[in-house]
Amino acid sequence: MSALLDLFRYSISSVFWGILIAVLFMGLFTFLIKGWYKDAQFTLSGIIVGALLFLLLSVQCILIMGALKIIQLTDFYEVQIERLVESRYPPTEYVSLRQADDVIKEIIYEYPLLQYYIGGGEFTGFRAHELPHAIATELRSFMRWYIFRRLMWCFAFAVVGAIIVIKTMEKSKIPRSVRQRPAYRRQHIDMRRRRR
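Below the sequence we write its predicted structure tokens.
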């Protein structure tokens, strides 16, 4: 939840695009269910489930957009880490685990959103000039996995939501044969009756 609040604070565009994607998904969700079950109507419980599904999808989509933003900025973060490392260690010196953690804490302090994605990591056996690239590579890898997990949660929420909404839908009380009969035919029959 704190990651979501920080996205509101530091990356309002991620929030905007995340909510927009969730709205589009819910539109598609409703269109597909109504297209498949033409004779059924949404109930109050189905609408509540849909609202809850929208909320859950919005959170996941916002987090996905935040992760994509971080992937886009990884080159920038790498440059910042390079500057930080160059100011502290000679390029060919091996950096210890503790020193690497200090670098990560410093970069997280400057860019708070990163704390949810690179809270640590065992960066040992790297020379100082190799460390920034190693951290950036690990960040990209983690973000891809993070996005995949968020997408799987979205899929799971959508499937469960669809099952519940479909189970709660009510069949229309108007017989199908009446609804399918063209209106002009009924008017034509009525006119004949009037002539008699």
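The first strand starts at residue 40 and ends at 41.
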